[in-house]
Design brief:
A six-stranded mixed sheet has the order 2-1-3-6-4-5, with helices on both faces. The two termini are 31 Å apart. Helix content is 48%, strand content 14%. By secondary structure, it is α/β, with parallel strands linked by helices. The chain is built from eight helices and six strands. It has two domains: 39 residues; 193 residues, Zn-dependent exopeptidases (Aminopeptidase), CATH 3.40.630.40. α1 packs across α8, α3 packs across α8 and α5 crosses α8.
Length: 235
Amino acid sequence: MGYKKAIYRGAVCLMLIAFFALLIRPAAQIKLMTSATPAKAEPRVIVDAGHGGEDGGAVSADGVPEKGINLSISNDLSDLLTVFGFSVEKTRTDDNALSDDGDSVKARKVNDMKLRLEKFNSSPENVIISIHQNKFSSTKSKGTQVFYSPNNENSQKLADTIKDSVRSLLQPENERLSKKADGNIFLLKNTDNPAVIVECGFLSNPGESALLVDEGYQKEMAFSISTGFLDYYHL
């Protein structure tokens, strides 16, 4: 993993240099660029850490729930996107669900999902990246897969740029394609904004599960997703 960490750190440094170079660019040059280029609406990125609180999500063979992994990657992703100059809103910032209303786990889960959807749909400028982990009956399944909402043509574009970035920077052997969400994925079914769910890896795969709980790998995953978003933004 040493070479991957070196790539990650080097890429972060280069992108930070580029970002701060833009900040100090002469005002006249900025004015020239903006006058020649039509204004582009700035997106607000909703970073959604899946599950939380009593809803742990998928659980690895050694008992690690996905909710904590989701939160760590989401926090790293939010920090990167903020540094890159984007407006970012997180659906949760700690190990709590969005709602504790309801007299059963199911009722509280339904209320939690409704509140997430409200955040997703709070502005037409929102772009949603929801972070999750996968699990399957076979321990051989591995690799990031991105699901996209069928309601907005830009959702597939976002899914593809994130998928390509993860493959390029982190998982060169990953041949999974972006997949249109079916009606069973409530949040993607009910938002009209560009929206994806990034299933970062399989907790059912022992090797990948060990990576997903590693803080360094989580940062690499967040960076790969963030560069995918930048590619989408510059399409």
